[in-house]
Design a protein that fits this description.
about 375 residues; alpha/beta; Outer Surface Protein A, domain 3; Rossmann fold; 7-stranded mixed sheet
Length: about 375
């Protein structure tokens, strides 16, 4: 191990003998008591030295080997140390892709804060390359989600949609003006390729299905018609529930943005649960929903560009959090923000006892949140 203080966490002296790592309460950690010699030793933790050399240089500061070992151990336990050589063989492969890694340094820095184990950031970036995500929809929301996922290192991003790109599909970070008139799926594939970080792994890498294609890790449902995200059709989602494929809904309807729920089949409420619960709360809802779904809409759906961009960014972040092994707040919940106030609020969407998905018969996934005051750890 070559200990390195995580560069993403800014540090400052809280007083004469205490150092704080990190600015925000969600990730801040305090270290103390801290003397001048130990503070100087922290500057040596830059990833260029192994423990034997660190102990040797610490002796010049009148710090004992035990002092160094205890300090390094407690810094590691507090999630403050990284290892630039860690992460396993997949991370080593990523390191050899210098251009790819340079583009993803900000992502790696962020992941190093979220996943405290040394080498954990590159391990997750490498794992993203083996994942396959399908985005259903190539409008202002869906196309931007696909671009962000591809740019964040997801190895395979597929976009499904019909028709041809219209002028109102164009958005910064999404389909460009040059795509107007092209098939939406073709334009979206080109967008994904332009956004990609390096080339995806060859077929047959870890996670490949029998046919050589990796199994779907996630489906993101971001239809151009926001009604299909706000009130998703249970029949359309049944295939993902049956196959156990996680899926996340996102979109804009009228002047409201929605992200979620992220459905874990058999564990959280699905589109069918959502429909049954809504019908219980409002018996007239199914009648109105049938009217809204019927017929062919000839007008352009409302979709504020700023709101669509915010929804796409939040949905992509939730998707990446899930792909990296965590459960974002959209798991079994939906986040909504309506213009002009744009106050994001969450609503829990629990499973329904009469839904065939079976989630009501299991204990729902429990979410944990981080935050509060800085953690305290003693070392030195």
């Amino acid at each position: 191990m070559h200990p390195m203080l995580k560069p993403a966490l800014r540090r400052a002296w809280r007083g004469r003998n205490t150092v704080q790592f990190g600015v925000t309460p969600a990730h801040a950690v305090t270290l103390g008591p801290m003397d001048i010699a130990t503070g100087s030793f922290l500057e040596l933790l830059d990833g260029t030295r192994g423990l034997p050399l660190l102990r040797e240089e610490a002796r010049a500061l009148d710090l004992s080997d035990r002092h160094v070992d205890v300090l390094v151990s407690r810094l590691t336990e507090a999630g403050l140390l990284d290892d630039p050589t860690g992460g396993g063989p997949e991370a080593d492969t990523l390191r050899r892709r210098a251009e790819t890694l340079e583009r993803q340094r900000p992502d790696a820095a962020s992941l190093s804060v979220v996943h405290p184990a040394p080498g954990g950031a590159l391990r997750r970036l490498a794992a993203r390359r083996a994942t396959r995500v399908q985005v259903r929809g190539a409008g202002r929301v869906g196309a931007a989600i696909a671009a962000v996922l591809s740019g964040a290192g997801v190895g395979r991003v597929e976009v499904l949609d019909g028709g041809r790109a219209e002028p109102w599909d164009v958005a910064p970070g999404g389909l460009p003006a040059a795509a107007i008139g092209e098939r939406r799926d073709t334009a979206a594939r080109q967008l994904v390729r332009r956004s990609a970080v390096g080339s995806p792994p060859r077929a047959g890498a870890d996670g490949s299905a029998a046919g050589g294609e990796p199994a779907l890790s996630l489906v993101v449902v971001a239809p151009r018609d926001g009604l299909s995200a706000y009130a998703p059709d249970p029949d359309s989602a049944a295939q993902w529930v049956a196959s156990g494929t996680p899926h996340l809904f996102a979109g804009v309807i009228e002047a409201t943005g929605v992200v979620g729920p992220l459905v874990l089949p058999g564990g959280t409420g699905c589109a069918g649960c959502l429909a049954l619960n809504r019908a219980e709360l409002d018996p007239q809802w199914p009648r109105m929903l049938a009217q809204w779904r019927s017929g062919r809409r000839t007008c352009v759906p409302a979709c504020d560009l700023g709101l669509a961009t915010a929804v796409a960014g939040l949905a992509a972040a939730h998707a990446l959090s899930f792909l990296d092994g965590d459960l974002p707040a959209s798991t079994g919940s939906r986040w909504e923000a309506a213009m002009p106030v744009l106050d994001w609020r969450s609503e829990r969407l629990g499973p329904h006892r009469d839904c065939s998905c079976g989630a009501a018969g299991h204990t729902e996934v429990e979410l944990t949140s981080a935050g509060g005051a800085p953690q305290d750890t003693m070392a030195g």
